[in-house]
Amino acid sequence: MWDYTDKVKDHFLNPRNVGDIQEPSGKGEVGSLACGDALTLTFRLGDDGKIEDAKFKTFGCASAIASSSALTEMIKGLTLDEAEKITNEDIAEYLGGLPKEKMHCSVMGREALEAAIANYRGVPLPMAQGDLVCECFGVTDLEIKRAILESNLKTVEEVTNFTKAGGGCGNCHERIEELILEVRKEAREVTKDEAAPRKLTNIQKIKMIEDVLEREIRPALKKDGGDIELIDVDGDFVMVSLRGACVSCAASQTTLKDYVERKLREQVLESLIVEEVKK
Fold first, then answer.
1. What is the pTM of this model?
2. Tell me, what's the pLDDT at 2?
3. Which of 24, 213, 231, 246 could share a disulfide with 242, CB 3.0–4.6 Å?
4. 3-state DSSP call for residue 162?
């Protein structure tokens, strides 16, 4: 028997905000019935740009229901920028804690929220763009690496508790161990770099921008028939040109600012500004 807090029990027995929002601003669906857990989250934005309502429907255990119920309460009244900063640890803390074997339920809630926000913005879901590692539960390397980094996971068992990856046939255990080593090595290198900060040369900056475009942004856009080309880099201004389906897409500016610019700021420099060059 899992040791649940009173707040978990309350949100399980008396779940808040169950159902679907008709004509929602954003809708996110994660998991599957075949994997044992599935969650749909919808939200509606008010005229002030804040989430005025959120609802969920889930197929899962007590922790999944409680986590989903808690998340819908947590995001009401927040802007999307504020809501997307909520982590699975925040959800668990709101509930007074979750058994370590059930942390994946809070992760699923966070992923559903990310999917709903991406749906509203009309951009690809970043974590879904990774390589599939766990075929049993459909977990990518990007999802596993983020969980390892954010929650300081050190063993395959801990990764399974947070993501379900490795909880089926076990064929992916070796790859999960490799990812744990990769993330810990990268974290050490980042710490080392932060101890001795250096200014990027323009050539270094361009190379890093090109790398992010090739590795993450271009593959994601191509899945929807679009593409992107780097035109020039002038200081912190990154000039790009959209290609393919992105040219006529009504959400092209949202894609540039909420996806391309955000990715480059996260992985290259926080001060970068992306501008489109019409060709």
1. 0.63
2. 63
3. 246
4. helix
